[in-house]
Design a protein that fits this description.
The chain is an all-alpha fold and about 240 residues long. It has five helices and no strands.
Length: about 240
Amino acid sequence: DLRKQARQLENELDLKLVSFSKLCTSYSSTRDGRRDRYSSDTTPLLNGSSQDRMFETMAVEIEQLLGKLTGINDKMAEYTNSAGVPSLNAALMHTLQRHRDILQDYTHEFHKTKANFLAIRERENLLGSVQKDIESYKSGSGVNNRRTELFLKEHEHLRNSDRLIEETISIAMATKENMTSQRGMLKSIQSKMNTLANRFPAVNSLIQRINLRKRRDSLILGGVIGVCTILLLLYAFH
């Protein structure tokens, strides 16, 4: 009698699990097909509240059947432990183990299908919330968008100005360093010239005499040229 009840529950569970799996598959394919066919922002991602209610109902029914089958297996285990015929004990244990394996398989399949369904529904809800945020952003006032755009442009101008100022400062610093190095070189040359002039005063006096001689020769040559020019002019006019 317990085996008969167990088989009946197993058959019901098998049918329920097949329908449950088809429901989850249709739920996923319906959402995927809708996203492929419709690309407008106003198309809702989730409108399967009836499928959600059907999922909850079937999940409760399957859990109840699993609970009943677990109870039947427990009763069969009690009967096996209390059986008084040793020759039938091995066959009964084999039968009990087979029903336990079937229960374990059904339980695993149910939890796996339920987890997949919940993951798909959670993903769809997340996509729906993201799309609502996008629609609310797109439907925002144009004034706010324009103001945001102006702020972004002003921020970009400020960044460009800062960059130009930094480049100008770097150029000024480089010029200052070059001027400083040139001034140092000129000071070193001047100091070397002063050192040479102090070390060789005779050379300095000789240079001064040569300059005076050149100036005197220039004056004499200029006077001779002037006198010759005057004489030529007098001769030409007379």
